[in-house]
Structure formats: C-alpha cells, structure tokens
Specification:
Number of helices: 9
CATH topology: Rossmann fold
Radius of gyration: 20 Å
Helix content: 40-55%
Strand order of the largest sheet: 2-1-3-4
Distance between the termini: 46 Å
Largest sheet: 4 strands, parallel
Order of helices and strands: HEHEHEHEHHHHH
C-alpha cells in the first residue's frame, strides 16, 4: 500500500492492520551517462512497494533526500545541510508516528547513506518516542548474495553497473539509455591509497569522479527482474520480522526508564 494513494478511511485501516510504515531512501545524483539521477529512489521505492504487497505495510512516498555531497559537482544532484537533513528525517519520523505507526522500517537504496542512517538509528536514543525505528542493515541474506552473484556476468560493481542498470531496465526502461553506456568500465582510480586504512569524505570521488563504478554493457531486463525479486523477498521477510517483534520496543522502554531514573535522582 502506497501512503499517497490511500484515502483517509483506507489509511486509518492500513495503520490498524499493519502498524508498519516502510521508508525507501534514495537520493538524486549522477548515474554515469545512461541512468536517471533518481535511479536509487526509483528502484528502492519500487522494491518497497513490491515487498509491501508480499508482506502488507504502508510505503511512504518516494524519498530523495540523503547523504550525497560527493555528487555536488554534477548537475541534478540535490543536497541538504547535514544538520538540517537529520532534523528533517526525524521530523518526518515524528509525523509517521503521529499518524499512528509504531514501527518504521528504513530501506536504504543508496550506498552513500550507509553511515548517515546508522547514525540516524543511534540518534533514536536521544529522546523517547512512541515508535521504534528499524534499519535493515543488509540488502540480501548470505544465500541471496550467492544467488545475486550467480546472475552477474561482471565482477566490478558499485554504481550504474550491470546490476543497477538491469534493475532500471526492469523498473523504468523508458528512462534507460543503453546507447549511452560508456565503452570503458568504471574502475577505481585509487588516489588515496597512499595512507593505509584511510576513510575520508572525498573517498568516493577519489575513486569514481565520474560516478560510474562497474560495467553496465551486459545489463538486461531478465537480470533486473531476478535482482529485484531477491531484494523484494529479503525486505518482505524483514518487514514480517518487524511486525511480530516485541523485543526492541521493550528494550527502548527499559532504557528510557533508567534514563529518567538517573535524571530524577
């Protein structure tokens, strides 16, 4: 069920029946020369909608605000001040909770959101809320990863690659320009390897300044459908587990009670 498509009576019933809202988080950024800037958002939202058909939940409208500062040198990227981005997401969580949902599932469709969303999840301990946030850490199970790799013909992955292009062909073929796929694969330039074990904000740019990681020339609709099914099945199983979970909310209640006890002396 898509939030924006429901009538008010339908929405109220959906909250009562499912209790779970799924947020698929993407961004707007360059995807080589052949995919639209909204690729992450378009694919992630589709996966969430298909998963919610298998395991009923309400899917939040398409979300395209995230950590994508490394793409600011390209047209079409949309970035928000880091502190405002965190406040915006937390404010939206509060509105989801105000609408009656007690469980919010975060499905990340953009690799660059990884550290940001983990911090968002940790930030839930700052203030007690009437809802719990569940972040799916892995896109696939170990078995799913093996199946995924078996579908691939290429070994270089990361961005606008065989996998992402195949899924785009399956989700929005009219937006894919296969004739614009670069003839040369996107390989890492490794311009920061002079310092061992370094993480830096410019790290992605140092490897992939043109925002192309992989080789999309072997992408097909058939592969895209298989990749999507693996993602959908994994997310649906995660939603099902969240629905029945009582441990996380109980731990949060225990934590905040002890926090109040400290402040109250």
């Amino acid at each position: 069920m898509q939030w924006e498509n429901l009538t008010t009576p339908e929405f109220k019933e959906a909250v009562r029946e499912t209790g779970v809202c799924v947020m698929a988080l993407g961004v707007l950024e360059k995807h080589s020369e052949h995919l639209p800037v909204g690729t992450d958002m378009l694919i992630a939202h589709k996966v969430a909608c298909l998963a919610a058909e298998k395991e009923p939940a309400v899917v939040f409208p398409p979300w395209y605000f995230g950590q994508i500062y490394e793409a600011r040198h390209f047209p079409g990227a949309l970035t928000i001040k880091p502190t405002l981005l965190l406040e915006l997401l937390e404010a939206v969580f509060d509105e989801i909770g105000r609408n009656g949902f007690r469980k919010i599932v975060l499905f990340n469709g953009h690799g660059g959101n990884h550290y940001f969303l983990h911090f968002v999840a940790q930030s839930s301990l700052w203030q007690e809320k009437p809802y719990s946030v569940y972040l799916q850490r892995e896109w696939l199970t170990p078995e799913g990863k093996k199946a995924w790799n078996a579908i691939c013909e290429t070994t270089e992955f990361g961005h606008a690659d065989e996998c992402e292009t195949s899924m785009s062909l399956a989700v929005h073929p009219n937006l894919v320009k296969m004739d614009a796929v670069p003839e040369t694969p996107g390989t890492p330039r490794r311009r920061l390897t002079h310092i061992a074990d370094l993480f830096a904000g410019i790290g992605w740019y140092s490897n992939y300044p043109e925002h192309y990681a992989g080789d999309a020339r072997s992408a097909t609709v058939e592969k895209g459908k298989q990749f999507l099914k693996l993602w959908v099945d994994t997310l649906a199983a995660f939603i099902a587990a969240v629905k029945t979970d009582k441990v996380l909310p109980a731990l949060e209640a225990e934590f905040f009670k002890r926090t109040r006890d400290v402040s109250e002396g």
